[in-house]
Specification:
The chain is of the alpha+beta class. It contains 20 helices and 18 strands. The structure holds flavin-adenine dinucleotide and 2-acetamido-2-deoxy-beta-D-glucopyranose (5 copies).
Length: 602
């Protein structure tokens, strides 16, 4: 409160300074950031190895190497002023504090798979904090636990586990290049979700650098923040540096199959029937479906094909028995099935042949390309949850729309829930999509040609499909999954004055009733909203006070001129009106102390 008062008294004076000094702050923000970094990293590893400005010859290759959505590889995609690739956790404290001090936004990037590119794009001056060099993985076979740093990919994690044990595993995503930093903080599901739940359900500890530059673990961050980062998206709360995982036990031998059925082969009836079967199968068995247009055997004609893709945590005999009992219509034969190790199943779901060396899973940019279309084409995705079976007529309308696309250029990915997902309560973690759902259905448009024409056509088309689905999917809210980020659902105001009500438009879809608690945690740990992006959780202070003075203060605080102001008045550039002014101002101290402890967990 006292700051508000002092600002209001001195405001005419402030505007004078703003007018005089605006050019200065604007052009030097990132240089000052670099100066601050070099000051605070000099006794460490030094900044020369970890900082890339646009002048560095490898700037572009570092930036682009982790852009995993081809939609954002085009020249008009915004670029950061600086990329920092810390080599040690302790350096992140300095990066956070120097960025805050100099009014630079941070976009934290682990694997770079964000569907809307938010980990490396921004409309305001920003730095990319790229975690790619923090990718250590330590497996403790005895304790069935692992520490994995945020920059590791799930493929690297899977491979490391498989090196140590053939019966330990971790239930995360399918595509091996996805980063654990983003995936786990948004939930993270994969082929074992019916047995073990989400990746986030199997996290037991974490390390995070907060807005004050402190390195926290589960104990020091507290249970509320630890709850928030397991499904609420990491980007709103700080920089996650590592996760501690509870590994799960799997049999030596698993079974996979993939069978395609076209409309002529009763696909519609099978999909319709699947809705009653798949969510209620024993939790060792997952049967997902990928549906899309395909070239028919009749030349020049197209049809729709449903590919039923399955993982069974057991042997083929038992699987065939279960299928005979539950889903005989699918007519899966023994020769459709393959017995594999868990790591081979990871190759299969990653779009590789199971004969491939598992080492291909460790590459961030694999030389052998995955067969998954999402890794090969530009894409735009929408997500829905289905709570009541869709009637045959509903699917027939979908086929009409799918027929408008070329073969291979769209996909509906259907993943059954039930099993473990049904047992976990909606508020156990921020991810709320549990018992109420039969399955989820991802709608994807792919395109290959660059340029705005193709992308506009495809995005418009997938939005039409999404509109068509309205009567068949979850309502109030029409639920969504933060890891399948969709900016169509709404975005924060650039002016950082998004109200709770406004953010609810996507917040309730992603988090349902957990949104409110996420806002509470955000308000507690980052009331100044330093960690923010187009869909981050807003803190509540704007709404709570709502005074004109606060609006004025916010305007000034965000302006590029505020840094000078800060120097003259000794106010932090990004801290909120009512809290922690003293914490935000350089010189930086806390991380030097924390540094000593920070290595112990690895
Ligand atoms: C090809 C492909 C396959 C996918 N497969 C699956 C799947 O099988 N299952 C599934 O659940 N999802 C899947 N996804 C979605 C995926 O979970 C999300 O895109 C996820 O956010 C990616 O994490 P990342 O680290 O690779 O992404 P990034 O783009 O690096 O980050 C995503 C978001 O998390 C934030 N973030 C990243 N690292 C940190 C950190 N260390 N601390 C704080 N915030 C951080 C970023 O700022 C950004 O907001 C897939 C996506 C793609 C493109
Ligand atoms: C980037 O360039 C600067 C000077 O322009 C240099 O000091 C730094 O070492 C370079 N960074 C890397 C990672 O090569
Ligand atoms: C980048 O190069 C330009 C000239 O090419 C120079 O003016 C600028 O100072 C350089 N920036 C850094 C951070 O080295
Ligand atoms: C489709 O279903 C009908 C009866 O429901 C059955 O007679 C026919 O053999 C099926 N076709 C295929 C290709 O399985
Ligand atoms: C399908 O057929 C069309 C021509 O009819 C061809 O251009 C296209 O490449 C084919 N697509 C696939 C995925 O085979
Ligand atoms: C300092 C450091 O370890 N840098 C490495 C970061 O990762 C890139 C890509 O793997 C390497 O090229 C750097 O050497």
């Amino acid at each position: 409160m006292s700051t508000t008062t002092s600002l209001s008294k001195s405001s005419p004076f402030l505007f004078l300074i703003i007018l005089l000094c605006s050019w200065h702050a604007q052009s030097h923000g990132h240089n000052d950031f670099l100066q601050c970094l070099s000051l605070h990293l000099q006794n460490n590893i030094g900044i020369s190895n970890v900082v890339y400005t646009q002048n560095n010859s490898s700037y572009l290759s570092i930036l682009q190497s982790s852009i995993k959505s081809r939609r954002f590889t085009i020249a008009s995609t915004p670029r950061p002023q600086v990329i920092v690739t810390p080599a040690h956790e302790s350096q992140i404290s300095a990066i956070v504090l120097c960025a805050k001090e100099n009014g630079m936004h941070i976009r934290t990037r682990s694997g770079g798979h964000d569907y809307e590119g938010l980990s490396y794009t921004s409309e305001v001056p920003y730095i990319v904090l790229d975690m790619l060099n923090l990718s250590e993985i330590n497996i403790d076979v005895e304790q069935k636990e692992a520490w994995v740093q945020a920059g590791a990919t799930i493929g690297q994690l899977y491979y490391k586990i498989s090196e140590k044990s053939t019966t330990l595993a971790f239930p995360a995503g399918a595509c091996p290049t996805v980063g654990v930093g983003g995936l786990f903080s948004g939930g993270g599901y994969g082929p074992m979700l019916r047995k073990f739940g989400l990746a986030a359900d199997n996290i037991v500890d974490a390390r995070l650098v907060d807005v004050k530059g402190r390195i926290l673990d589960r104990k020091s961050m507290g249970e509320d923040l630890f709850w928030a980062i397991r499904g609420g998206g990491g980007a709103s709360f700080g920089v996650i540096t590592a996760w501690k995982l509870k590994l799960v036990s799997v049999p030596e031998t698993l079974t996979i199959f993939s069978v395609g059925r076209t409309l002529e082969q009763n696909a519609t009836k099978l999909i319709h029937r699947w809705q009653y079967v798949a969510p209620n199968l024993p939790e060792d068995l997952l049967i997902a479906i990928s549906i899309g247009p395909t070239n028919s055997s009749k030349i020049g004609e197209k049809t729709i094909q449903a590919i039923f893709i399955s993982l069974f945590l057991g042997r083929v005999d038992q699987l065939l028995h279960l299928l005979e009992e539950n889903f005989p219509e699918l007519s899966v034969r023994r020769e459709d099935c393959t017995e594999v190790s868990w790591i081979q199943s990871a190759l299969f779901f990653g779009g590789y042949s199971i004969g491939e060396s598992p080492q291909v899973l460790t590459s961030r940019n694999p030389k052998i390309s995955s067969a998954l279309p999402i890794t090969r084409f530009h894409f735009k995705a929408k997500l829905d949850y289905v709570q009541e079976p869709i009637p045959i007529s509903g699917f027939e309308g979908v086929w009409k729309l799918l027929h408008e696309r070329e073969a291979g250029m769209t996909e509906m990915l259907i993943v059954p829930y039930g099993g473990r997902m049904k047992e976990i309560s909606e508020d156990a973690l921020p991810f709320p999509h549990r018992a109420d759902n039969l399955y989820k259905i991802q709608q994807l448009a792919y395109w290959d040609e660059p340029g705005p024409g193709a992308s506009e056509r495809s995005i418009t088309w997938v939005r039409r499909l999404y509109n068509y689905m309205t009567p068949y999917v979850s309502k109030s809210p029409r639920a969504a999954y933060i890891n399948y980020r969709d900016l169509d659902l709404g975005v924060n105001n650039a002016a950082d004055d998004t109200s709770y009500a406004q953010a609810s438009s996507w917040g309730l879809k992603y988090f349902k009733n957990n949104f409110e608690k996420l806002v509470r945690v955000k308000t507690m740990v980052d009331p100044g909203n330093f960690f923010r992006n187009e869909q981050s959780i807003p803190p509540k202070n704007f709404q709570a006070t709502g005074s004109k003075l606060l609006v004025l203060n916010r305007f000034i605080r965000q302006s590029p001129f505020f840094k000078l102001l800060n120097l003259m008045m000794n106010i932090s550039p990004v801290s909120p009106v009512e809290s922690e002014l003293e914490d935000s101002v350089c010189p930086i101290q806390p991380f030097h102390e924390e540094q000593k402890n920070s290595q112990s967990s690895f």
